């Protein structure tokens, strides 16, 4: 069983933010929180079922994410073992709850499969490619 923890940065750039949902708790009123929670669970289930991989560390460690990071922050990144998601800039990049598996699955896949590849040049391209392949398998 995954151990998910979802935090809300409340559009600030400080981490981790306030814990708003953890494993087994009722759904939040925030659709983004629930979508990230669900996408982490779907990705966890895939890696556990297909490869026997129990979380990022292989030992059942928590899956942590922070949502609503920054003001119009249009990106996703990993920091301190947590997935951090902005809301988008509202013009070119918008994070929509229905698209969260497309964002979360490759991000988690990359952390599981290739955390040692530098995110630069050819190794960065290889990392993205491998992560996208596994994200497709998750879906």
Shape: globular
Overall pLDDT, averaged?
A: 87
Q: Which percent bin holds the helix content?
A: 25-40%
Order of neighbouring strands in the sheet with most strands: 2-1-3-5-4
Structural class: alpha/beta
Proportion of residues in β-strands: 15-25%
Give me the number of helical elements.
3
Could you tell me how far the N terminus lies from the C terminus, measured between alpha carbons in angstroms? 19 Å
The major beta sheet can be summarized as: 5 strands, mixed
Low-confidence stretches: none
Summary, kept brief:
With 139 residues, the chain is α/β, with parallel strands linked by helices.
List the SSEs and their pairings.
Elements: E1 4-8, E2 18-22, H1 31-51, E3 63-67, E4 76-79, E5 82-85, H2 100-113, H3 121-138
Parallel strand pairs: 1-3, 3-5
Antiparallel strand pairs: 1-2, 4-5
Helix pairs in contact: 1-2, 2-3
Task: Give structural notes.
With 139 residues, this protein is of the alpha/beta class. Helices cover 38% and strands 17% of the residues. The protein has helices at residues 31-51, 100-113, 121-138, and strands spanning 4-8, 18-22, 63-67, 76-79, 82-85. A hairpin with a 2-residue loop joins strand 4 and strand 5. Helix 2 (100-113) packs across helix 3 (121-138). The mean pLDDT is 87.
